[in-house]
User: What shape does this take?
Amino acid sequence: MREAYHDQLETILEDLVTMTRAVRQATQLATDALMSADAAEAERVIAGDAAVDTMREQIEESSFELLARQQPVAGDLRMLVAALRMVADLERMGDLAVHIAKVARLRYPDPAIPPVMEGTIRQMAEVAEVMVSTAAHVVETRDVDAAMRLEARDEEMDQLRRQSFRTLLGDEWKDGIEPAVDIALLGRYYERIADHAVSMGRRVVYLVTGEHPAPTA
Amino acid sequence: MREAYHDQLETILEDLVTMTRAVRQATQLATDALMSADAAEAERVIAGDAAVDTMREQIEESSFELLARQQPVAGDLRMLVAALRMVADLERMGDLAVHIAKVARLRYPDPAIPPVMEGTIRQMAEVAEVMVSTAAHVVETRDVDAAMRLEARDEEMDQLRRQSFRTLLGDEWKDGIEPAVDIALLGRYYERIADHAVSMGRRVVYLVTGEHPAPTA
Assistant: This one.
């Protein structure tokens, strides 16, 4: 019985890692769709979100069942509560990747991002993807140092976002309102993906150390 | 012991209602600050978020303690898990009110919203506030009908958001990039507050009926 119980706990963690990797891939595909104005790729991301939602349901159900049947205490209880929270983070991250894909779809066949902004958006996307990969690694290995590094990466995201606003509001911006609005929202989506990755990292730090890391922002 | 346990459960629900009302007030004050370019009011919302975060910590701690000590099953377990989720919704809603206040602060002493957009933003704010009030009522009374009405209200929010984009991208827009970017993001913040209110409603519906309401979007 205890054996099966620990197997179930282990499976929940493995499923969380799988879900994190699925979200990372969705983010990457959404960025590809955005950068290459690829409507088919955008559709794949949008359709693929159902699979992410199914993963969420499965992990929630397993966690809830374990809570109800095994009545875990201390560390295991903390882990299950953390899993329920991380799965909510991941669902939102999947939704945000869908939002990015929808901008690509909305502007197709035109590219949504004017050349002057391509570099910044690519960098934001890259930082987001690396952060989601790191979150998967952190959940898998409980690597507290890597979790702490997520906060530094998040600062990089904030700087890129400020840079995007400077470009939008500067003299070099000749592309008008529509792409400006798209970019303001896209920046918000990438920033929120990054925030959720930080939040996953903080939950793992709390699981391992029993302490909440001090907020940096 | 059982008595104290049910008192604790009851207190958690009451605290959730109090927190929901605090978030509603923060949303309303943030809108006032935005509409009247009132920097002092904006600062009050920003500073006041610490109290919302403290409520979250307290509710999380009580819920966790109850989970660990009383090992609730069935309905009570579902309620505690729902409380942990709703408290996460509420914390985000508080953060979003802060984001709204920060736009007011950033543009002070100028108003952030050009006259042509005032009506739409006011309506979005009003819909958001009513939805948060309804969420408080739903948590307090478990009124499933009111919870379902949140979804209809959310549709109204989506329509207002589409209307704001039509104005931004239409010929009547003479206010340039900066307010357009602000309004795109403000629309997103109000929309997200509304989404979280819907999500709270759905959690209560699930608690009462044992069934997840079908998603409308």
